Amino acid sequence: MLNNETAKPYIKERPVRFAAVMVILVALLLFGLVLNINIGSVHISAREIFSMIGKSVLYGLMNIFSGGKYAGEFSAVVSASTESQIIFSIRMPRMLLAAILGGSLSVSGFLLQTFFRNPIAGPFVLGISSGAKMLVGITLIFLSGYIGYLNPGMLVIAAFIGSLIITSIVVVFAGRVKNMSMLLVIGIMVGYICSAVTDFCITFANDHDILNLTGWSMGTFSGADWGSVVLSFAICIPVIFICWPLAKPMEAYSLGEGYAKSMGINIKPFSIVLILLSSILSACVTAIAGPVSFVGIAVPHITRTMLKSSKPVHVIPASFISGAVFCVFCDLLARTVFAPTEMAISTVTAVFGAPIVIYIMVKRRRMQGD
Amino acid sequence: MNAYFKTENLSVGYNKKVLIRDINISLEKGKILTLIGPNGSGKSTILKSISRQIPLIGGRVCIDGRDISRWDLKTMAKTVSVMLTDRIRTDMMTCFDVVSMGRYPYTNVVGRLTDEDKEIVVSSLESVGMTSHANQDFNTLSDGQKQRILLARAICQEPEVIILDEPTAYLDVKHKIELLDTLSEMARAKNVTVIMSLHEIDLAAKISDYLLCVKGDTIQAFGTPEEILRENTIENLYNMEKGSYNLNFGSVELAKPEGEPKVFVVGGAGRGIPYYRALQKEQIPFAAGIIFENDIDFQVASKLSDHVISAPAFEPVTEELFNTASDQLLKCRVVIDAGGSGGTFNHYNRKLLELAEQNNIPISRREKENSL
Q1: Which of A146, A362, B46, B156 gives the lowest tally of CB atoms within 10 Å of its CB?
Q2: ipTM summary value
Q3: Chains A, B: CB contacts under 8 A, how many?
Q4: Please, are residues A194 and A166 in contact by the beta-carbon 8 Å criterion?
Q5: CA atoms within 13 Å, Cβ hemisphere of B168
Q6: Apex CA B352: angle with CA B350 and CA B357, to 5°?
Q7: In this structure, is the dihedral angle defined by the CA atoms of residues A332, A338, A340 and A346, taken in order, positive or negative?
Q8: Which residue of A has its CA nearest to B121?
Q9: Mean pLDDT per 10-residue section of chain A, whose length is 370 residues
Q10: Number of neighbours of residue B26 by Cβ within 10 angstroms
């Protein structure tokens, strides 16, 4: 035999670390949520907030289980005062939306990174968000005239189609270039083309639509209402649960297609599902909140670093939560730093996200020389 | 012969274009088959085809009498494991993580490792001597260490057949030998069938039960090393026009110097070899003599010079042969005495040196080898 080190090695187990990270993240998320409700032009004390939320959840649940008997009490709590109205119809939906969409965006980024085996892949840098934006723009400008009213579901579908088109284009090119930075260049170029098409459409749009589109394309959670929360919850949470059983093949896939095949993974359906899920997630985010930059790259990277592992079975849930934390805090900054003027969410996420991307690029180059 | 692994009229290639046709291999369980052949001859294509990495173009591959193209992916994964030439790029995966991927076909839906799985991972790490690196990040390893971890991963999959594409690439000589030793140990002790490609023909001949010579669109030969390896097999297989390959020693000689000999080397018993090689390096054509054909000098001299005056082994040197040698010597400008003139049977070499002295041909002696 080859070895002369026969002593049984100590294998570092990491579930403990995973659990610790999760606890910290959830605590941070709760803290962020409370801060978000608390801070704003109208100050509401924490005690009031908890009592109001407690009552509303209680009556809400009672209302659901009793078949509508407590509807009166529920609405009484919700619209009791200006404070409660601010909480229930503005701050709560907004922060929940930021949490759900932020989490989805980072999981979407992680799926893309797994698929391209490239740590800087993400819906924004690969032009996928721009593709979604393009189709949403076309829908807003050209179809709204015919249909009259556009519901958010249709925007999600439009964004989904846009994401899929761009993802397929990038996948085709990715097959030809194996180089990490080239993939990025292609993504950025495709993104520019999409923006050009969007701008072109804007030229022919009327003022009202332009206003709509510009506001939306800056990316913001300010338009949040309970409808968009329910919609994004209904789309994103099931998708994330579908990702869970994919975690095992995803880990094997990280060793490369050849090894994945030899371990019994049927590559084609696996990669199609991966791309579809990732597109659904980023489309949902883009349709509801507009393009949000860098969350998809920065958050999975931070998460992996915290976990000291890239096991998808751990990274998927952890990056969902940390994406939520990241976006909740970024949104808080976006709406409070220059209050009453709000910044676009991407303005804040880029400030934190872009340096992380640069860091990853520099580190990789040093380590692997490509 | 009770064939465990068998290919029948196999055609392989890419995009429905046949690269190599009519591949018929037949192996018993626990044997080692090595594919040898020039770069680009299709060794990898064959290995990828029989491991179902790429689709077959024609023919069948059978393991244990069953056609593997009908197997589901999981059965395939539990029977055949591979080690590829693909460079893998991981992110925050320890060696333990990489090796444990070999348990993939055995673990549950979320890939949880049982205690038994963990033990198998550890013993796989042990078998390649990498246990002390278990918690190290895979990316920080040297190429050779990565190669060993990937072998451990393949072992960890507990296969019946293990397919390796150039497993010795990036390895230094020590680790080459250790890796091949691990493989032959697996074949002997665990009855695992090993199919691989190697560039080192000498090692291939030593470790393999069977060799498959792959050359372009056909299989040049399949059989045991003893059956296949004859004079010039290797030169033909690799289309070597310059230089030569010595099967007995597994050593390579570079292209022989062209032209009429300018130097005559009097050698024998291995003493001539450094001179032959030095002359080759300077591209000075030389003649060598008189050496017996069982002399080690003959093995090298005959590959590096067309003018080797040799006598059959265990026969006395004839007068005629001596005359040929002295004719040759007189045409040369320098004579090198490599020290092959001692001993009763070498008195002809002493006579050659005397002849050189009489004719005022400068003699470079062994002590003065630097003046060469």
Answers
A1: A146
A2: 0.79
A3: 121
A4: yes
A5: 23
A6: 95
A7: negative
A8: A11
A9: 48 78 92 83 74 79 77 72 77 89 92 84 83 84 68 79 86 71 81 87 75 70 82 90 88 88 87 86 84 86 86 91 93 84 84 83 59
A10: 17
